[in-house]
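<derive_structure_tokens>
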Amino acid sequence: MEKKQKLLIFLIKFAGGFELYLSLNFFSMGYFLPKWFGLEPGMPLFYQMAGVELAILGFLVWYSARDIERYLVIIIASCVFRLIMPLWPELYLTITEWPNLFAVMMVPAMIYDIVSSVLTLVLLKQLGYIKPKNRG
């Protein structure tokens, strides 16, 4: 197997596993973590819903590494979500609600979201999973 293909599979599995890990954090620490930093936490139901959604998406992304061509839409959707997150929700949250966490948590989260998504999409394009549409 080619090095780029192995790297792509690793990135997909890592992204899925990381989302599963984050879902556990939302379930267990999502409500309490802001309190530890002296911030006002949101509603506990929000964190539970986010944890469930992250767990489902994480499992789907991780599973899609088994057959990239067949489950390509899941991988692309995950990349799109991870590209949208830093542009609006993460940036908005850090500016308006939690500026104390900007350097500690949100900057690394935004960097991970952007870099991993772009790298995954570039590898998908280079390996021929994303093909240009014929116009003519």
